[in-house]
Amino acid sequence: MTRSRSASSRSAGNALAASGWASVRTPARHPGWPARLGPVRVTGGVVELRKPRLRDGAAWSRVRMRDQHYLEMWEPSAPGTWAERNSNVAWLSQWSALRSLARRGQSLPFVITLDGAFAGQITIGNIIRGSLCSAWVGYWVAADLAGAGVATAAVALVVDHCFAVSGLHRLEATVRPENAASLRVLAKLGFRHEGLFKRYLDVAGDWRDHHCLAITAEEASGGMVAKLRADGRAGFG
Ligand SMILES: CC(C)(COP(=O)(O)OP(=O)(O)OC[C@H]1O[C@@H](n2cnc3c(N)ncnc32)[C@H](O)[C@@H]1OP(=O)(O)O)[C@@H](O)C(=O)NCCC(=O)NCCS
């Protein structure tokens, strides 16, 4: 079993390396971190992923304050007002928590950029290794960039990275049934529907049902970015 898992990861890695898709430094205990992923060209421009920076605070806060109504109906409830949680000052604790989780090998937190400018975030969280080698993926993109293929490219990049470089075997995403755009992102990439989690997560002040969608390394062995290119949804950077 271990042999076939390594072989499938290796062959995905070879296919991706051949496409010149990522440059990575690989510390021993957290393979695949830190990393810069991309570029991938989509309708909206050139998508790249990089680690969050302390100086992202102003852009992060500006977008999230502007897009409160677009974002908060999909995000987990948390203490404090939206303004308190998304101020420029709040970024310091967010950034620090993300950096600490990444350093401990529990997360791969990325900022999404479009043509070099801050466009959103995508995070691989709750990384469990051992015989599970699994994690979740979560993402958001600025409202004024919606529908331009940005989130799809970002998810494709992290899926390829997790399977080919980080040594994970399964990724899952949980999505409210009402979130048609997010379900469409995952459908375009071939995520499989696994079930409905009833009253799963406190979002916007109530316990909300969520679909669970997942993908394994074997299902993504040809590479997600390669699939987007083959489907005519992405080009080279
Ligand atoms: C979900 C989200 C990340 C998608 O980002 P995006 O960059 O617009 O995604 P893409 O452009 O790659 O793909 C979106 C797809 O959904 C489709 N779509 C958008 N709104 C839709 C709707 N109401 N019904 C059906 N499809 C819809 C788009 O047409 C596109 O599909 P297409 O390429 O076949 O045309 C973004 O809308 C967002 O940040 N929403 C708020 C936060 C959130 O929901 N995060 C995910 C939580 S699970």
TrEMBL record:
GO molecular function: protein-N-terminal-alanine acetyltransferase activity
Any one GO CC term of the record: cytoplasm
Keyword Acyltransferase: yes
Positions of the N-acetyltransferase domain: 68-218
InterPro entries: Acyl_CoA_acyltransferase, GNAT_dom, N-acetyltransferase
Source taxon at top rank: Bacteria
Keywords carried by this UniProt record: Acyltransferase, Transferase
Similarity comment: family membership: Belongs to the acetyltransferase family. RimJ subfamily.
PANTHER family, alphabetized: [RIBOSOMAL PROTEIN US5]-ALANINE N-ACETYLTRANSFERASE, GNAT FAMILY, PUTATIVE (AFU_ORTHOLOGUE AFUA_3G00765)-RELATED-RELATED
UniProt-recorded name of the protein: Ribosomal-protein-alanine N-acetyltransferase
Species of provenance: Labedaea rhizosphaerae
